[in-house]
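Hi L.,

You mentioned the student needs an example of a multi-chain input paired with its predicted structure. This one should do, with 1524 residues in total across all chains.
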Amino acid sequence: MILVGTESDIKLFNEDGTRIDGRTVEELRPIKIETDVLNRADGSAMIEWGGNKIMVAVYGPREAYPKHTQDINRAIVKARYNMAAFSVDERKRPGPDRRSMEISKVISEALTSSIMVEKFPRAQIDVTIEVLQADAGTRIAGLTAASVAIAAAGIPMRDFVVGCTAGKVDGHIVLDLCKEEDNFGQADLPVAVLAKSGKVVLMQMDGDLSEDEFNQATDMIMRATKRINQLQREALTTKYSEAIAGGE
Amino acid sequence: MILVGTESDIKLFNEDGTRIDGRTVEELRPIKIETDVLNRADGSAMIEWGGNKIMVAVYGPREAYPKHTQDINRAIVKARYNMAAFSVDERKRPGPDRRSMEISKVISEALTSSIMVEKFPRAQIDVTIEVLQADAGTRIAGLTAASVAIAAAGIPMRDFVVGCTAGKVDGHIVLDLCKEEDNFGQADLPVAVLAKSGKVVLMQMDGDLSEDEFNQATDMIMRATKRINQLQREALTTKYSEAIAGGE
Amino acid sequence: MILVGTESDIKLFNEDGTRIDGRTVEELRPIKIETDVLNRADGSAMIEWGGNKIMVAVYGPREAYPKHTQDINRAIVKARYNMAAFSVDERKRPGPDRRSMEISKVISEALTSSIMVEKFPRAQIDVTIEVLQADAGTRIAGLTAASVAIAAAGIPMRDFVVGCTAGKVDGHIVLDLCKEEDNFGQADLPVAVLAKSGKVVLMQMDGDLSEDEFNQATDMIMRATKRINQLQREALTTKYSEAIAGGE
Amino acid sequence: MPRDELGVLSEIKRSTILRQIKSQKRNDGRDLNTFRPITVQTGFVTKAPGSAMVQIGKTRVLAGVKIEEGEPFPDTPNQGVLTTNVELLPMAFPTFESGPPNENAIELARVVDRGIRESKMIDLKGLVIEPAKKVWIVFIDIDVLDFDGNLIDACSLASVAALKTAIVPGSTIGQKDFQLPITCTPVSVTFVDIDGTLVPDPDLEEEQVSGARITVTTSEDGKLRAMQKGSVGSLSMDQIKGAISMSFNLGKELREKYLR
Amino acid sequence: MPRDELGVLSEIKRSTILRQIKSQKRNDGRDLNTFRPITVQTGFVTKAPGSAMVQIGKTRVLAGVKIEEGEPFPDTPNQGVLTTNVELLPMAFPTFESGPPNENAIELARVVDRGIRESKMIDLKGLVIEPAKKVWIVFIDIDVLDFDGNLIDACSLASVAALKTAIVPGSTIGQKDFQLPITCTPVSVTFVDIDGTLVPDPDLEEEQVSGARITVTTSEDGKLRAMQKGSVGSLSMDQIKGAISMSFNLGKELREKYLR
Amino acid sequence: MPRDELGVLSEIKRSTILRQIKSQKRNDGRDLNTFRPITVQTGFVTKAPGSAMVQIGKTRVLAGVKIEEGEPFPDTPNQGVLTTNVELLPMAFPTFESGPPNENAIELARVVDRGIRESKMIDLKGLVIEPAKKVWIVFIDIDVLDFDGNLIDACSLASVAALKTAIVPGSTIGQKDFQLPITCTPVSVTFVDIDGTLVPDPDLEEEQVSGARITVTTSEDGKLRAMQKGSVGSLSMDQIKGAISMSFNLGKELREKYLR
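Structure written out for the whole complex:
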């Protein structure tokens, strides 16, 4: 769906307190995680989150190449976030752009923080995140699935990385922005944490938030990540997990 | 000459059974092959075939570079087919495009099939094919000349690679398409074979052919390659060969 | 200032024998050289010459990289001349273009001629010339500053490289072209010499000059380079030198 | 570490494959002239005008079709435009690297493209909005997700399946949406030569022991539409004629099962 | 010789830095929550519509603003365009190489850009010449000349200072020159985590011993405008909240001292 | 294996060349101030509006001229456009590689271009179709086929010969074909310094033992039109003045023999 109009035309919040897609402020979109979806990769996962469909493959640890990129003390984690040409409304030219390069960098850093990289000196771990269909929140959904794929590859991790987005829409703080809220909202706050400690490994914000609003948003995110981490764990034990009703 | 008009306007076949350029269905355009046309190259050849003018240079066998491209069992053959900016009606931007990359690949594979590559482990043989003037059938003309240049470089070969094109024009199967037949015909079938065995090392087809038409076209090609191989051999012994009347 | 009009409209030479910016034919624009302007670089200099502002940094000698670029007999000098995006009237796209690649090459060659490169086999000396504001004569100003930065880095030199431009404007030979003279003049002759011997290490010319005019122009340049070399030397001893009135 | 090769097969594996072929069996136990199991799931990317996820054995690709307004080529002012691109994602194989398409990806895309273009599967003349000015551009983009041989047929099948379900978004320019005009259903069948025997739909291990490759694309009217001989090695004309006639049979089978 | 790393600190230097932090002192002797000495020189590039040379300690950057006519983006026909680019010049550090921006330069440029864009510092609606056809494009280009840590804040400060002095060259299209329409003054403050302590404005040696990084961009109306957590390592939510409140204080100080 | 160097001469060859120069002879036996044998074949590419194959000794290049409609540069609305490009084909020398032009190819193309552009050889004002909108663009493309030194003069001679025969295809836009408007005939002469002696038209071995290089382009009206000092090494002003006066003589000779 494409909304036509200017910011002011668009009502993102209904009078009954529900959102444009009918959810409550702290309701997640449906999430489904499946592991071992690919044959070649050492580990893989597919996540569906709202309309997002994202596939992740992990190769490694294997010798880092080219040699001068090797770190003698630890493995390097190279995530590559990419949007398929057909994943977005207007066809995307293949190949990396500035946005995807930045996202690849922050995802690599977030994953590195969760992996026992010191066990694999001179190695590299490749994580390919392919967005097959995009529907707001792809970086967080991709990162959340990547952590599952890494676990599925048997790579030792300190903890899961799990994320969620919150934002501001028509003055309200809401969880897990949908496409229209992402395009026409007032703030966007994607966050990823280590599941057990709740420590933040990825955070980006743009828009306009007071300190109060920031606290409200991060509280929502922290609660949501607990539920999503549950799905991550189930997907690994049962190869498949699904939460259709995202509310608590 | 540029033909203006739509497909249906253009008559490619005359009522007397001759073609737009006056040839009969199985008549080749004039072909001229000359060897040792360059000073630096280890082997070289120039072919003129109809309005095509193509120069080929061969360097090697020499150590493959970069090192990780080396094959410990055989030489790799790297052909590079390129059209000069001025070789076609509308100026071509310098540098490889998708078409030339595909042609370089199938030519490399065809030549590899003819060279005793197992005699030169870790080596590479570079074949540069520069189209100076293009007039339909450049890939086959370039490949035919390349095989001569490789022989001229003294590189041991199992056999010559020799090729010819056939196609369908106004419903008739004809040999060696000219530019207008290539642009407005119904099918195009470039083929290259090993001269002695007649085994196919390059074949591409596009358009629309029945099995019968395919057989008719390949029969013509097989007959033509015998004549063209004769020119290849003469060019090597006398440094120069020419067939002005291509018919049998 | 942008001059609008055609060549013939623009008067570059006044009736009193002065130039469009008031200078006499053999008068330099103000020049200011400062050394050690940067913290990281092994040597650095900033030159202001008319409206030009150019910063130069030198790193090295250090091991040449990648290895296959090493010369076992001498250091290689890699100068990189670059214009900042904001340095010219119309925003310049970042990255090298054909002009800057040519200038980088002739500057590298000129500097190599002045440095005792034979003392540093397998090494490389990197010289970055960044034009922060451009106002005609940037290659010569950058090269003149680069020679100072190399001295400031303590790299042994045979001699300073020092340069100046002359040109033809409304039929008159003049020294040190300003922007309008450069754009609308009839000839442009940038020259750089070794300070002591006066031997030429960079010379480019375009436009239209008789032999007599060439001799007149090079005589002016040779006289000017003596004065400019004086500024180079002062900048090194006092970290700062300035010549506001460029005439003798 | 060399990154651009697809690995080398053990001598034992190699001789097993050759021995099986001699006794008319394939590497994975199937009969000589059959494809591996195939699944085709159209509409996988619900937001794209057309899409299809295809698995052939363990090879998996996803084709997506986008259809956008644009300018025609100057020499075909009365036709829409078709472009085909394949991405060999690093996800699909340990040595695939990100970056611009290499010669393998380009050959693959061009062979797939030729089968569709030369069969005139899409009636490009039905994609003109304003002659010489505005036409519909059909973008076929294919993600290779999992690689176990025979990418040409997998990509070709996915593209044709995606196109057959594709909708032209006329409503975005104030007209009506309409089905992409389709005139026929080309199917490509790819063979490799293993020790003198041509077999269709090779898996990766078979590709590693094989010589020449040949692809034959046919349409339901009994016409050859495109061919491509690939890889080092040669084929006799008899082998090629055998491949052609087998392509008509297998093409018919695939068309009826997966491209209704 | 690896070229892409920023060097490694000696163990002694490393432990000195950690020891000092424990006793509430920084590497260079300053207090925990202070910036290094700052200078801002606007108008350095007299020929550009706006420019600022900024030094923070030994880090030096030059931002130049160019404003040119161009076309708006199709989805924002009634807005001017803003683009931000950073060049990590080989001049600035021994291992910086020339070439297209790497991921560090891109992240840097995008974080700087977001601070300016999301604060709506520039009233882009005031930059329309002819709706949907012609608008002013504001190019911010930043040369990194000398690198000693905390490039984000240096580039951000230089950009904001350059924009505040920038003139739109209306006279080139037969209108009047006018001041770039500015609505607020965003300031970014970047912290790194050294052994559990978050400190602002790290120098390079501090960056080399540190874990996670966080940048908070605020405006004078007490709003958060942009944030970016970077580098390997994690931060507790309490650390982040601390950083936010410190950012408001330091942002106010910088705004008043250097961005009047 | 280093690929970017042109090889190293043996010490014996080197000292032979130096000894011969001292006795006023060149490497290949010719006199000091003469060119190697030259052949110029115009019209080699019959389909191009202009072309010339040039051999100087064992160096061989082919220049082709294409002339197409296009837009003028905004700052020269009343002039056609000239562009010059040189391809150092891998065919021409063992260490030449394919790829975008390196700094040698770029310097070469720019020096050739300057000689043509600065002599105003082509009356660009005669190439306007519709002022500020449509002009003729003259593309000079040069293929270097065989390399044995002195590419500048070979490429320059081939370009000028090709231009002098070139036809503007006015008939493609409903006008008449016409001869490219030529006002003069620039000739470049390139010298290298071998042990203090400047000699013209060096072959590759001479280039390998030489120091500085200088190119002087002159026109028949006795004017210098372009110069380029190249390579490491220095030249005295007297040497340069000697090169200039020799360039006028040799330029006249080449012009009369090969560019009638």
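You could point out the following to them. The longest strand of chain A covers residues 52-63. Residues 1-7 of chain A have pLDDT under 50 and may be disordered.

Best wishes,
N.
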